[in-house]
Amino acid sequence: MSHAVVNDKRPSTLRGASLPKWSPWAIAAGSIALAVVIGLAGGLDSRAQWGLIAGLLFLLGTYGIAARVEGRRQAKDRIATALVWVAFLIAIVPLASLIWATVQRGTKVLDVYFLTHSMGVVADSEAGGGIYHAIIGSLEQVGLATLIGAPIGILTAIYLVEYGRGNLARAVTFFVDVMTGIPSIVAGLFILSLMLMFDMQPFGFAGSLALAILMMPVVVRSTEEMLKLVPNELREASLALGIPKWRTILKVVVPTSIGGIITGVMLSVARIAGETAPVLLLVFGNPFINTNPFEGAQASLPLYIYQQYSQSAGSTAAYDRAWAASLTLIAFVMILNMVARGIARWKAPKTGR
Amino acid sequence: MAKRIDVSGLTAYYGSHKAIEDISMTVEPRSVTAFIGPSGCGKSTFLRTLNRMHEVTSGGRVEGKVLLDDEDLYGHGIDPVSVRREVGMVFQRPNPFPTMSIFDNVAAGLRLNGKYKKNELQDVVEKSLKGANLWNEVKDRLNKPGSGLSGGQQQRLCIARAIAVEPNVLLMDEPCSALDPISTLAIEDLIGELKERFTIVIVTHNMQQAARVSDRTAFFNLSAVGQPGRLIEIDDTERIFSNPSVQATEDYISGRFG
Amino acid sequence: MDISTQKTDQAPPPTAPPTTTEQKRAARGATRPGDRIFLGLSRGSGILLLAIMAAIAGFLAYRASLAISKDDANFLTAFEWNTGVIPPKFGIAVLAFGTVVSSVIAMVLAVPIAVAIALFLTHYAPRRLRSPISYVIDLLAAVPSIVYGLWGALILVPQMDGLFGWLDEYLGWTGIFSWDQGAPRSMLTVGILLAIMILPIITNVSREVFRQVPQMHEEAALALGATRWEVVRMSVLPFGRSGVISASMLGLGRALGETMAVATVLSPDFDIHASLLNPGGGTFAQNIASKFNEASEFGRDALIASGLVLFVITLLVNGAARAIIARRKEYSGANA
C-alpha cells in the first residue's frame, strides 16, 4: 500500500525537463539590466541599491523559472546555488572596496619622506609630516610584547602537550580558551588599573604588556596544534635511546614542529600589530620621536591612524596621512602573513610517508 | 520494480587516467551479480558508473552507454539525481547520517520528495527496516542516533535506507568488508531475500562470498598497474567457479594469480 | 612525581620495547636537573597564565568597586555618564543596550553570508577559484580593525544615505527604521561594519569545518538521489553545525569587544533610541575609548567598571559556545 504511494510520487522517467547550461548567466544578465532600468527610472543614486535589486531579481527569477520548468526540488537547488553566489558577491564588494580605497588613497602621500619623518610640530590640519615615530613605537612595543608573550605561550603549550594531565592542565586549557575571547580593550584596562595603582604615566612598555596578554593564548593554541602533529613514535624512539625528556622535547619534538610554531607566532604578531585600543589607553600617542619604550608616551601605527582621523576635524591632509599609515600597516601585516604561510608550507611537518 | 542493465562499450576516466576500458555486459533483473577481481581492477569504479556516482569525484567522466530498461543513463537530458533515486547504493563503510536518528535515516530518501503523511512514513520505515532484517533490533529505539548501532546493524540500516525509496537496482560496494563474520552472514542472507525484489550488483573481494550469494559473476582484471581495468568474463557463478572459459579467471580463483 | 610514572607509561614504543635499564633511565629522567628545570619553566608558564587571568579579574573588580561604591546613580540602569560631577552619576544601561544591538545586527548579517561563502568555497565554487579566494579571505581576516574603522567612517558612511532613505521610506513606520536625515553614523552602520569585520573569521572557521565533512556522508545523500542543495542540507550542515556555532561565537566575541571601528563610525550619545538609523547610543568599548582622554582617575575607574561588565559578558558568550559544542559532541560525526 505504502509501496504504491512511493511509486506514484516518483517521476516515471529519468528524463526531467531541465534548463540549458547558460540559463544562470542569462537570468543574471536579465536581472542586472532590469535593475539598471529600475535604478534609472526610480532615480536611485546609490550603486549599492542597484546591486541589491539586481541580486533580488536574480534570486526571484531563478526560482520562478526553475520551478516552472524543472520542478520544486530542482528550483530549490538552483536557488541555493544562486544564494551562495549572491552572498559571495555581496561580501566581495566591501572587502574589495576596502583594499582599493586603502591602496588608492594611501599612495597619495606615502613616500620615503613620509616613512622617515615624524609629525614633530606639524599641525593636524597641515600637510607634511610622517610616521617614522609611529613605526619606531610599533616595532618596539610589538617586539617587546613578542619577547614576553611568545616564550610564555610556547612553554605553556609544551607543558600542555608534553606534560599536562590532571587538574592544572585542564584549568590552563580552559583559561587559555577564555583568554582568547578577551577584548583587547579589557586587556588594556587591566594594565591601566595596575598603572593607576602605582601612579604611572603612559609609556610604551605598558602597551607591550597588554599586547603580550593578547598574544599568549593565540600562541598557545597554534603551538599546541603543531606539537600534537608530532607523531608519538618520534618521542618514544628518542626516549628509548635513553635521552632525557627535556632534551627529547628540545631536540626532537620542537625542531620537528618549528615551522608551524614560527608561523603561529608570526600570525599572532600580525594580529597584535594592528591593535589600537590598549595602545590608546596605555601609550597615549606622541607626535615626536621617542625611542625609549620604558619612559614617556610613544606613538604607534594603529594609534597614529586613529588620531589622524579623530583629531583632525575633517582635514584632508590628515586623512591622507591616515590612509598612508593604513597602507603601511596593512603591508606590514600582509608581509608577516605571507612569510608565515611560506614558512608553514616550507617546513610542514613530514607526517606519514 | 527490478530493471535490466545493459552496458555497452563503457570507458571511465579520472582526469586523463583511464580507469576502466570498453566494458559491456548485461545484468538481469531480480538476480545477484557479483564483481570480483584484484585491487585496482576498476570494479568499484565500474559500479559507480552504474548510478553516475563516478562523476562526483573530481575529473570523473564516462564514455559509452548504460541502459536501464532501454533508457541510457548517460543520454542527453538525463538528470543524474533521478538516476540515483532509481539505482540505490550501499557503501563499503556503513555511513548512516550521524546527526539523524534511526527513523530519520531510513526516512531521509523519502523526505527528499516532500509530502508524506506521518503514518505513511512510519509504514515505509517499518517495512524497510523489516526488509533489512533490522526491525526487531531497533524498533524500541527508533529515535536514537544511527551511529550508536554496531557496524553490522549500521550497514543494514544503510540497506534499509537504500530500499526505502524502492529503487530498481541496488548497488553494493564491498558491503561486508568492514564487518565481522556474523554480521557478514546476516547481510548475505539479506541479499538472498532482496533479490526477489531488486536487481542487485555487488562488488566483493571475498570469492566465497561471491560464490555464496550471486547468480552470475563477472571477473575484472588489469594487464599491469596503471593500465585500465577490463572485464575478462561474465558467466553463471557456478560455471565461473567450476569451469571458467578464460585461463586468467581460473588462475585468480584458484589463487594462482600474480 | 606523577610525571615520572607518565614517562614510563609513554616510554616503551610498541614496536621495540626498551630493555629494563632503558626503562629505569627514562624513569629516572624526571629527577635530572635538566628535566626539573624544564618542567618547572613550562609548568610555571602555565601557572603564570592562570595568574594573569586571576589578576585581570581581580584588579578590574577592585578598581571597579572603587568607582561603583561612590556611584550616586544605579550602575546597571542609569542613562548617564557623569563622572566629573559631585556626586558622580553613571550607569551602563545605554552601553549594554548598544553593545548588544550592534552585535546582534552584525551576527544577523554576517552569519548567513559567512556560512554561504564557506559553502561556496567548499561545494560550489569552480575548483580553480577555491584556493585563491580562500587565500584572500585569510588575508582579510588579518586586516587591523582600525583600518576597517577608517574605511567605515570615510567610505561606508557616505554610502549609507541611499539605503537609509529607502529603509525610512518603506519601513520607517516600524519605528526601528525611521530616519531624521542625520549623518548615518548610527547603530545600523556600526552593525554593518562589524558584520564586514567578522565575516572573514566566521567564514574561515566554517570553511574548515565543512571541508572536514567525510566524503562518505555526502555520498550517502547523493546515492539517495539528493540534489547538491539536499546533500548540503542532509550531510554538510548537520555535520558542521557545532563548528558554525563556535565560529559565530568567535565572531560575536570580536563584535562585542570591538573598539576602534565603533569609535570611528558611531556618533554617540547617552540615550537609548528605538531607531537603528538615527545616530546615538554607544557601546562599552567605544565609550571607554572616547571618554578615556578627558577622564580623571575616578573617571578611569568608572570606565574600568564598565570594562569589567564587558569582560563578564564576553566570558559568558565564550562559556555558552563551549557548552553548546560539548553538548553537540555526542551527535556529531566524530565517531562515525
Description of the structure:
- The complex is a heterotrimer of chains A (353), B (258) and C (336).
- Chain A is mainly α and 353 residues long.
- Chain A has helices at residues 2-9, 23-42, 47-69, 72-106, 112-116, 132-163, 167-180, 184-197, 204-229, 232-240, 245-273, 277-282, 301-310, 316-346.
- Chain A has two domains: 19-105, no CATH class; 132-346, Orthogonal Bundle (MetI-like fold).
- In chain A, 74% of the residues lie in helices and 0% in strands.
- In chain A, helix 9 crosses helix 11 (245-273).
- Helices cover 35% and strands 26% of the residues of chain B.
- Chain B contains ten helices and ten strands.
- In chain B, the strands form two sheets. In chain B, strands 6-7-8-3-9-10 form a six-stranded mixed β-sheet, sandwiched between helices. In chain B, strands 2-1-4-5 form a four-stranded antiparallel β-sheet, with helices on one face.
- The termini of chain B are far apart.
- In chain B, 49% of the residues are buried.
- Chain C is mostly helical and 336 residues long.
- Chain C folds into two domains: 2-73, no CATH class; 89-335, MetI-like (MetI-like fold, Orthogonal Bundle).
- In chain C, 71% of the residues lie in helices and 1% in strands.
- The radius of gyration of chain C is 26 Å and the shape is globular.
- Classes of the chains: A mainly alpha (353), B alpha/beta (258), C mainly alpha (336).
- At the A-C interface, helix 4, helix 6, helix 7, helix 8 and helix 9 of A face helix 1, helix 2, helix 3, helix 4 and helix 5 of C.
Low-confidence stretches of chain A: 1-12
- Helix run count of chain A: 14
The global form of chain B is globular
Number of domains of chain A: 2
Give the CATH superfamily of one domain in chain B: P-loop containing nucleotide triphosphate hydrolases
CATH topology of one domain in chain B: Rossmann fold
CATH homologous superfamily annotation of the largest domain in chain A = MetI-like
Q: How confident overall, as mean pLDDT of chain B?
A: 88
Structural class of chain B: alpha/beta
Largest sheet of chain A: none
Give the distance, in angstroms, between the N- and C-terminal Cα atoms of chain A. 56 Å
Q: Determine the number of helices of chain B (DSSP H or I, runs of at least 4 residues).
A: 10
Give helix and strand order of chain B, one letter per element, not per position. Answer: EEEHEEHEHHHHEHEHEEHH
Number of strands of chain B: 10
| Uncertain residue ranges of chain B | none
Protein name (chain B): Phosphate ABC transporter ATP-binding protein PstB
Keywords (chain B): ATP-binding, Nucleotide-binding, Translocase, Transport
GO molecular function (chain B): ATP binding
